[in-house]
Amino acid sequence: MDAGGPSPKRRRPASPGVEEDGGCADYISALPDAVLGDIISLLPTKEGARTRILASRWRDLWLSAPLNLDCRELTAGRNEVRSDVVSRILSSHRGPGRRLYINTCIHWIPADTVEACLRSAALDNIEELDFINHLLEKPQRALILRFSPTLRVANIGGCNLSDVNFHELHLHFPLLKLLGLVNVMISESSLHSLIAGCPALECLLIDMCSGFRRIQINSPTIRCMAVREYGIPIESLLLEQIVIEKAPCLVRLLFERGSILQVTVLAAPKLETLGFISDKCRSGELSRLMIGSTVIQ
Asked: Which of 5, 9, 83, 200 lies 20 to 30 Å (CA to CA) from residue 25?
């Protein structure tokens, strides 16, 4: 070709992993370690660990990826969690924590294994906590609270938190968006302090909890709220009133009751869904709904 002629077109470089014989490109392995780590952390615990055998490129990724520790997948025999496997994971993992799932109502887990999980540096900066433990001792309750600065999702169940003074602790959950309390005993003042310490809270579930008669909501961010009480009317456990004092973003409020309940909505301009109100009565008085100054009985 003449020197003055048009220059030849440059060939586009081959895609990562494409072989000359037309083999398929391995685009996933070409991703940065940080992205692959996030992908691995979304997998079940066993599947995340198994990625180590895919190729030499993947060998150490799981150990440095955000840890998703789901104890449901680490059982042997009759739903007994293998403490040795849990200990090995916690001791070898170098990455930050992402999620911890423990449910002692379904799986038997030794108390020292539970405490080791809550204390482990491998779970520092954890973002999601699913913790249901009806055998929780007082020292372990304080360990749960150490995750408060980084939690985005928290489901806590089967715990007695009645002797934890959330008001005095000045606990703050700056990133928490979803909070679920299931079969938790907690005082009314502590419940309100806990909710007030969640400035980013969007969804709140209070299911079969006890220790309070009134729930008061004053939150600029909460969007969805659901409350379910005990089906058996035990006098000391009865929830009597829900008050939505100020919730400018609240869209959905669901509640279920077997006896008297008063629901008061003072300021919730975006509220679209509201239900249900029990038609059962006690002492001749039906459940009552108050919206502003309007009473519906």
From this structure: 9
